[in-house]
Amino acid sequence: MRPNHATLRSNIFSPSSIALYTSCKGAPILNRVFGINKKSVCLTTTCTVADSKALNGRLPSAVVPMQQAQGMGFPLPGDFVKMDDEHDTTRLRIFSGTANLALAKEIACYMGVELGKINIKRFADGEIYVQLKESVRGCDVFLVQPTCPPANENLMELLIMIDACRRASARTITAVIPYFGYARADRKTHGRESIAAKLVANLITEAGANRVLACDLHSGQSMGYFDIPVDHVYGQPVILDYLASKVISSQDLVVVSPDVGGVARARAFAKKLSDAPLAIVDKRRQGHNVAEVMNLIGDVKGKVAVMVDDMIDTAGTITNGAALLHQEGAREVYACSTHAVFSPPAIERLSGGLFQEVIITNTIPVKEENYFPQLTVLSVANLLGETIWRIHDDSSVSSIFQ
């Protein structure tokens, strides 16, 4: 059963980082994908897709907080800044590739616009064909296409979409890349290696993109590989809001970086969780997609450990780290990651009982067979939708996170 309505579930932890879960027609079923539970501190309302258009991408004012929200110091609906201005959509076009159509539909639903009509097909020899089915002349075009596995196919599809828009006289073309493939190939670690992240940036620029909107790049320096503006947004606020709904005592909480390279990310995450203490898993990598856990820096005994990383691929790093945390006396272990690549044997490792919960976002679609009881998927549709509005309106993007 697929509900034919949009459900807006906004955790009331931060007005600037409202977590929005949508269930437009054709999107995954909410209860399975988002793991909604009665203990969550949230605001819930329901609107039709037509209502979403009328809202023009803004949350409705008639939202009733759940009982758990009262008396806990969270802002109520009236505390949010009311935005009465309407957006001009006459020159706005949003198209989706085939990599994550569900997310693109959620973004369009949040913004109250329709996805643009586009024909994408593959010939028998594997070549990709793209045709826009509506005019984009003089329009600001946003192309939603993560370059997730199969990375090469999805990247090539994005490049051809950009080229089609350029040749159709679009005013501006923004590549909305929720997950940026090849981002880990951002430097040379051995002699005679390619820096593929720079190559991909060049390809996107040469294809005709004027701007890139990316979410949680593996490393910040990847933005510098582009010769066009890059808006880099973070999925952390969505995960932070969800964790806040669990009302975990700050005295029981410790944020853990699964490796030394992720310390800066984990420290920023810990600062937003009431300046929680930080622990680090020290490991030695013996080869690609292989990690060996060595020791733990910090104290996790009797605490709820929250492991933070930008992506989960084969899950070797994070599961080895979780095993070490349990050995060191951690009471519960949560895994939090923006991007769920989930290459084999990730699901087997993550569902093995080491984690109380595995919290990810929908920057990459999760296959039906990859769901397991501990998995919670949060939507970044509102975050990307709001960013698209601000780019289109020539407004500040960084103020979203202030």
UniProtKB/TrEMBL annotation:
GO terms for cellular component: cytoplasm; ribose phosphate diphosphokinase complex. Keywords: ATP-binding, Kinase, Magnesium, Metal-binding, Nucleotide biosynthesis, Nucleotide-binding, Transferase. Belongs to the ribose-phosphate pyrophosphokinase family. Residues 93-208 form the Ribose-phosphate pyrophosphokinase N-terminal domain. This is ribose-phosphate diphosphokinase. It comes from Ceratopteris richardii (Triangle waterfern). It is an enzyme of class 2 (transferase). CDD domains: PRTases_typeI (cd06223). The keyword Magnesium applies. The lineage of its organism: Eukaryota, Viridiplantae, Streptophyta, Embryophyta, Tracheophyta. InterPro entries: PRib_PP_synth_CS, Pribosyltran_N, PRTase-like, PRTase_dom, Rib-P_diPkinase, Rib-P_diPkinase_bac. NCBIfam families: PRK01259.1 (NF002320), PRK02812.1 (NF002758), ribP_PPkin (TIGR01251). It catalyses: D-ribose 5-phosphate + ATP = 5-phospho-alpha-D-ribose 1-diphosphate + AMP + H(+). Gene3D superfamilies: 3.40.50.2020. SMART domains: Pribosyltran_N (SM01400). One of its GO terms (molecular function) is kinase activity. GO terms for biological process: 5-phosphoribose 1-diphosphate biosynthetic process; purine nucleotide biosynthetic process; ribonucleoside monophosphate biosynthetic process.
